[in-house]
Amino acid sequence: MKVSQLFTKTTKNPPAHETARNAQLLIQAGFIHKEMAGVYAFLPLGLKVIEKIKTIVREEMNAVGGQELIMTNLQPREKWEVTTRWNDDVVDVWFKTKLKDETEIGLAWSHEEPIIEMMKPFISSYKDLPVNVYQFQTKLRNELRSKSGIMRGREFLMKDMYTAAIDAEQHDKLYNEIMDAYTRVFARLGLGDDTYVTFASGGSFTKFSHEFQTVCETGEDTIYLHKKKNIAINEEVLDDESLQKLGISRDELEEVKSSEVGNIFNFGTEKSEQMDFTFTNENGEKQFIHLGSYGIGISRVMGVIAEKFADEKGLIWPANIAPATVYLARLSEDSTVVKTTDKLYDDMRKRGIDVLYDDRDVRAGQKFADADLMGIPYRVVVSEKTCQSGQHELKGRTESESQMLDNDGILEYLAPIGS
Amino acid sequence: MKVSQLFTKTTKNPPAHETARNAQLLIQAGFIHKEMAGVYAFLPLGLKVIEKIKTIVREEMNAVGGQELIMTNLQPREKWEVTTRWNDDVVDVWFKTKLKDETEIGLAWSHEEPIIEMMKPFISSYKDLPVNVYQFQTKLRNELRSKSGIMRGREFLMKDMYTAAIDAEQHDKLYNEIMDAYTRVFARLGLGDDTYVTFASGGSFTKFSHEFQTVCETGEDTIYLHKKKNIAINEEVLDDESLQKLGISRDELEEVKSSEVGNIFNFGTEKSEQMDFTFTNENGEKQFIHLGSYGIGISRVMGVIAEKFADEKGLIWPANIAPATVYLARLSEDSTVVKTTDKLYDDMRKRGIDVLYDDRDVRAGQKFADADLMGIPYRVVVSEKTCQSGQHELKGRTESESQMLDNDGILEYLAPIGS
Q: ipTM above 0.85?
């Protein structure tokens, strides 16, 4: 895409109304737009990042047999009353509204109950199990405060997966496969080294649930790292019993701030008992179904990456989720330079290189500043000088040194990095 | 995908709670799930249709310079008060809810006002125009009744595009390009022959707006066709003045039921005057921006196609939006038949043919009935007999005669039809 055609613009200064660094940078770079506190629209460059994150997550969820579907925002009261979760004292983040006939309905803050109700007509026998479904869906949560930008919104995008299994064994197999898929997701998102499987409160059925927590100074959670074992404990379960269970001692732990980018929850048969979700086993007996739920905060992950990797110049995206792989900056309106850069742009696109072409007639400093602020992984500069030498300048976003390469060299370098 | 792995199942009889034919069939075939009246989840096969429709629409919107983004469901009151449209007497389909501090907020039934507010910081000069943005977004509308399945939901998916232009001339150019893009969309969706550009009420700025109406017995609109001129008039503007303006006489018109699958609206400067949306022209003078809005009801289109093309056996999808191009039915558990069909399945996938492989151990009649109910464009049958002859049976969904082809012949036939 050409920058001259992009309708968004960067701004030099952060917006006055934002305190969260991720939102400040993403607004400055033209990636998001604030509708109200905790509610953000995703503009073209921001939507590209979201879609690339979704693609990675989708590939890994499909690889473990997930079937994609999409549930609804509007929720009937009855489905949630069965589990007492319609009650605002039990769930304090409901947005509720009314039909014309005054029937109260809810706006989905989660989809656990509706997913189970949806599955019921399709599952009757052990032969119908296991089932593994997921969606990318907007969640609406009436948070009291919302000051963390897209790291904790009132409206946000989540990938939520649900499994139904005949017993604990079948459940555990799915659970472990999905744990592995999550590990692959965070590695591909560039968060692998700083994301820890974290033991957190497990509800009534199981001692622990597993959270995926990414170390992040501005995160809202506090976790205790055991770097040697590559695990962490959420402060909510940090007690002697838990430490003993995990075979670690308190003085081996390091306290850090973090953000919960994913979680995995084993319901056992608790929810299926509440909702009467059963199957018939091989002996013709009715049994309750083992359920699991598995979330990844898609827009939160984007916020964490924005916040975590940024430097004083702006955003820094890992190459596989950047809105473009390369920022092609043309520093002159001279016809030879224009022709050369146009050709390089076309060649890049032919090679499948995702390129943002700054064809504007503005000064070089602004082009460099925009490339840095937007966090595009590579920058290629074409000027009168580089056209004379036949070698243009290529520089990584976080590198201080650039290298000079001819057209073919640039294409060879960038093509494997991705589209 | 293999049918044995698909968690949804077909049902023989239509659901008792549905009167709309599209919803009956889509529920029977396992494409959608009803959450409540006018609110439907899209299950894997249904989501595939939605995504294929979106892909066609996205390609055509990008081709006319549209930049994709995504706005929000939650809406602050202030943005809508400016145009009086927060008022429930002006807009009677609002769902409204409240933040914890009792601030009333709305749920987006449209995105016109927020899109304009979002654009403001990016547009100041004539050099910033024109702008053309669009999104695929869920709309929530508090309809009094909702009995038309996914043809008119309380929650539905829409593609909405918005243009901003310096003057009527620049606006008209965009408007006509988008009109042409819409015509291409409906042609590609298989609705070209039955979709009419329809003159409807234009609001205060312009005499007419343009609707795209698809002839459909169960549609909620009534239009008057002029087949020779390939246009139609909505009953709301069918008066002598309109007829004269369009140069047609009343007795040339044919009354039909239809469904509004798209609309195109010229706001002129009415909305930008209300919302103070201006740019500075070449002479340094402030001027109001010309705005247009352009909708396509994505889930409605799916409903219209479901309803319109169905026969007594079930759904009939045009090949380019079908959840699969071919239904591969294996009629035996014999090892040769299994091996042959497995290989054909792999070969189809290698050739990029989107295939649904019925590998279940159920009787042939059920496989044929499911293939027909789901509306898959082609069916290939592999049995002991066809394995002996080396030629399998290929039949189009609406054809009565089948043809016998060997593996290569089947692949050659289906590969160009698409993935």
A: yes
